[in-house]
Design goal:
The complex is a heterodimer of chains A (179) and B (187). By secondary structure, chain A is mainly beta. Chain A contains 1 helix and 12 strands, in the order H-E-E-E-E-E-E-E-E-E-E-E-E. Chain A is elongated and about 60 Å long.
């Protein structure tokens, strides 16, 4: 019996999937997340005397995922989430950096794709949900498949701004859980 | 022995089920480059917000008095982003003014709600010359707005010069003088 379980377990792990693939439902949870990995460079600038630096936005990032859930007889409520936080670097002083997700694209996706949070989150080092109620689903694997993320960068205290170049790292996490 | 094996199987199955029924989590990262360049922009405008000359006229209609009354106002609309710990100045100088006269300026920092930031402060009234002199100092990151009467205010006063120079004044129908406003690099 023990031998049979080990073989079964190995068989489950033999197939490799990438985020966005349709993953067959199996006896374990799957949460794969990836993106199209664009270069994102944002500038806070003005070219007209008298005007403040314009807020900068960028929508080049698409996050794709595959989520599969298995509930062993319990009702699965689709409570998976995508969350985001800053894991390296610091947003320049005097500015605010926000993120909001669009609903998942529909061209190559399927399943319970969840619901984006409607108000942009202010990115910080604390993980915050940007999409909730994700069930078993896949987004597709093309560059523009998945959840389109929009970053916005603006000033909340102009006196504190100073010229600089910096890089921050945003980490997106998918969590698939049962209830 | 048989009972012991059964217990082990139950433990292994329970462990696998517990593992499978908790949660799965994975992540991906995205780097973002954020740039704030230095900004150093200045635009001189009249009281209507347009780039135009202002006219000053010295005259008198009371016999026995010196000519006077050459006053006017203009604004400098500015956008500035400084490096950390630095400030800037706005300086003014002229190329040439009619002999026997002097040109003074009094500055006022922006008051419009169209702007924001660190405006610095105005120095006291300055008698201009061909050498740039500070009119405003301590300017940090700021913008003034672009509407009429937005910006750093300059009140100009053109008068007969100090005593002893009056003999040098000659009548003229219009002499153009260029006053150069400069916002300095951060220091």
């Amino acid at each position: 019996m023990i031998t049979a379980l080990i073989i079964f377990s190995n068989k489950l792990n033999a197939q490799t999937y990438v985020a966005g693939d349709s993953v067959p439902t199996q006896n374990y949870n799957v949460g794969l997340i990836d993106s199209n990995h664009p270069y994102i460079g944002m500038q806070f600038n003005t070219t007209t005397a008298g005007l403040g630096a314009s807020p900068a936005t960028n929508s080049d990032l698409f996050v794709r995922l595959s989520a599969t859930a298995r509930n062993y007889g319990h009702a699965y409520s689709g409570s998976g989430t995508i969350s985001a936080c800053i894991t390296a670097g610091t947003v320049p002083q005097g500015t605010v950096f926000t993120l909001i997700s669009a609903p998942c694209t529909t061209t190559n996706s399927g399943g319970s794709l969840g619901t984006p949070i409607t108000t942009p989150i202010i990115l910080s080092t604390t993980d915050q949900n940007i999409v909730t109620n994700i069930g078993t689903c896949y987004t597709g694997t093309n560059d523009t498949d998945g959840y389109q993320m929009t970053f916005s960068w603006y000033s909340d205290n102009y006196k504190q701004i100073h010229s600089q170049n910096t890089t921050i790292t945003i980490t997106f996490t998918i969590t698939v859980a049962f209830h | 022995m048989k009972k012991n094996l059964l217990s082990q199987i139950i433990i292994v199955v329970s462990f696998l089920m517990l593992s499978a029924s908790s949660y799965a989590q994975s992540n991906t990262t995205q780097q973002i480059s954020m740039g704030i360049p230095e900004v150093l922009l200045i635009n001189a405008v009249d009281t209507t917000g347009n780039v135009a000359a202002i006219s000053l006229e010295l005259t008198t209609n009371v016999a026995g008095t010196a000519i006077a009354g050459g006053t006017g106002t203009s604004y400098a609309q500015v956008s500035s982003i400084v490096a950390s710990g630095q400030t800037r100045s706005i300086q003014a100088s002229y190329d040439v003014i009619p002999a026997g006269t002097s040109l003074d300026v009094t500055g006022t920092t922006p008051t419009s709600s169209n702007g924001d930031g660190t405006y610095g402060s105005a120095v006291s009234t300055i008698t201009l010359s061909t050498t740039p002199q500070d009119i405003f100092t301590g300017i940090g990151s700021c913008y003034t707005g672009t509407s009429a009467k937005d910006g750093y205010r300059f009140d100009w006063k053109w008068n007969a010069s100090t005593a002893g120079q009056y003999a040098n004044i000659v009548a003229t129908t219009g002499t153009a003088t260029t006053v150069t406003l400069t916002i300095t690099a951060g220091q």
